[in-house]
C-alpha cells in the first residue's frame, strides 16, 4: 500500500507547475491587486506623459526619460510590494499554516510566487512599452540594449522579490503590510529618479537612494532608453552598468539571507 501511494505522488516538477498556475489564478482573481500592480504604473505613464511633454535636452522628451523610471517602479510593484502584501495576507489568514501541513514540498510555494512575479513583470513591462511607443513615440531599445534591459530587469526583479518575501514577516497582515510598504516605495520612487530627472534630486537624497535597488534599476534602464550623451548627467558621469550589476547582485544575496532568517509559516504566538 505504501509503495503504491508513493508511486502515485506527483513529481516535484509537476507540483511546481501546478502551484505556479494556482498563484497566477489567485492573483488575477483579486481585482485590487491587478489594478494596483498593473494599472497604476500605466496610469502614471499616461498622466505624466500627457502633462510633462517637454524636451529635457538633446531632443529627448521627458516621457522618454520617464519610461526607464516607470518600468523600474512597475518591477518594484510586481515584486517587492506584491510579495510583501500577498504573503503577509496568506500568513494572517492561515493559508501558509495550512500549506505547511500538506505533503506539498515547501519549495513549491516559493516557486509559485516566483512564477507569479515573473509573469506579472513581463506583462506590465510589455504594456508599458506598448503604451509608451504607441501613445508617446518612445524609442525602444535596440540591438545589445535589449540584453542590458533583460539582465537589469531580471536582477532587479529577483532582488525585490526576495526583499518582499523578507519584509512580509514584519507585518501582521496584508493591510498592515500595504500601509508599511507602499509609503516606503513611493518615497524611493521620488528620490530614485522615477518622477524627476535624477540629477535634479538633492545630493543627500541621491546618497540615500543609492542604498536601495530601485535607483540602480532605474539607472540601468536609463542606459537603454537614453542616448549615451545623457550619461554625463548621472552622478558618476556614466551609466556604471558594472556597478548596477554588482549592487543588484548584492541585494539578491542580502534578500535571500533575510528570507532564510525571517520567513515563517504562521503568525507568532
TrEMBL record:
GO cellular component: ATP-binding cassette (ABC) transporter complex
PROSITE patterns according to UniProt: ABC_TM2
Membrane topology: Multi-pass membrane protein
Keyword Transport belongs to the record: yes
TM region(s), chain numbering: 34-52, 64-89, 110-134, 146-167, 179-198, 244-263
GO biological process: response to antibiotic
MF terms in GO: ABC-type transporter activity
Compartments where located: Cell membrane; Membrane
Domain ABC transmembrane type-2 stretches: 32-266
Pfam families named among the record's database cross-references: ABC2_membrane (PF01061)
InterPro entries: ABC2_TM, ABC2_TM_bact-type, ABC_2_transport, Nod_factor_ABC_transporter
Keywords noted in UniProt: Antibiotic resistance, Cell membrane, Membrane, Transmembrane, Transmembrane helix, Transport
PANTHER family per the UniProt record, alphabetical: NODULATION PROTEIN J (PTHR43229:SF2)
Family listed: Belongs to the ABC-2 integral membrane protein family.
Protein's UniProt name: Transport permease protein
Source organism (scientific name): Geodermatophilus sabuli
